[in-house]
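The material for today's practical consists of a large collection of protein records. A record pairs a protein's sequence with a compact description of its fold. Instead of coordinates, the fold is spelled out as a row of discrete tokens. We will come back to this pairing of sequence and fold again and again. Here is such a record, shown just as it appears in the course material.
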Amino acid sequence: MVNIDKGKAKGYNAWFECVNGCEGRHSIKEVVYRCSACGSLLQVVHDMAKLSEKNSDEWKALFKKRKHGNEWPYGSGVWGLKEWVCPTVDNENVVSMYEGNSNLFWAERLGKEIGLSDLWIKLCGNSHTGSFKDLGMTVLVSVVKQMISDGADIKAVACASTGDTSAALAAYCAAGGIPSIVFLPKDKVSMEQLIQPIANGAMVISLNTDFDGCMKVVQEITNDKQIYLANSMNSLRIEGQKTVAIELAQQFDWSVPDVVVIPGGNLGNVSALGKGFLMLEELGFIDKRPQIVVAQAEHANPLYRSFLKGFKGFEPITAKSTLASAIQIGNPVSVQKAVDILEKFNGIVEHANEQELVDACAMADKTGMYACPHTGVALAALLKLKKKGTIKKGQQVVVISTAHGLKFSEFKLKYHTKTLEGIKSNYANAPVECDPDLDTIKKIIDNQLNR
């Protein structure tokens, strides 16, 4: 039986504040998502003076001791950083699958092929439900469980999703014994993504609209404070997701790469990544900031359009259908936070069309990866920036892979069998069908090997 310390991270504290600096604080256990004064999103703020009482060497030793351990809940890549993430939840109310601690893959062969000598892929899809969404959902669901434990009348947790958020919410709520409700755009998520919340017992509501339409519905539904909002406009999610930046630094022996490329949809992950790096900087772990590149699908690129105008104004768009369905979002709720981070990190926004993203996936897969289409967008953006000379050969580059490719196997099969509508399969590797005749099989093998 696991021995669970019931105490909070004593002496440490965190709370909600407005991103625009409006006065007033909110408890993280309060059902609130926006500033009552200006309507902007909130952010989680930590007592940095208290965190600074430990020096960086002391924190490093503590994090190293906890990593992959079995003392609940500190073996998790998120909860091993509990004081930095969410110190006010009792350990007995933490809902964790030991998420995080995902591997950093040295993409040596792919890097050589595209002219980069130091390319790495952060495989955030190697997680319980197959995406980085687990990192934020463990924090949010744990806080909800704490709130219920403290007497709050919360009947369910709800989200709008393009597939991965719903999978994470359903799994963590199931583990925590909390009902979940997910709103999905009908026929716009993969079969693998659809079955995940169904299997985990969520109430799945499929709407004849896109993600932005689902987002409008869930915001209306969660006006009832008994139904708690789980989308990334809820800053608790960001706290878990910022651990990607901290893990990266730890995996590089407490340094940071020159460039980090990340797919962008609702843009919560962009702000989370920047927040993690800023926290490392403030606590004396790093002395430089990486350049952050946000990659968008051409069919859903409102941030890219704003970037072309120097972020002077932002106009939502109606996103068109894209194979990168998880980032098919035309009106991202975290745009303000994302722009703020990009301005602090010498940020760039690039986009990729459908042909570019599928070919980037296929190129990566041929070097040992199994890239989801959203990672394909990031890789395609990287290729374009390398060709432009914006990213240089000798720079250390990390691409954030946000989900496991197994969630999108139908898309890959169609690519390799040349049945993906509107796409030329430049790197197709279709299976060869033949009778079980040894001479015929030998000829096929010889032809393949001698091409």
Summary: The longest helix spans residues 133-149.
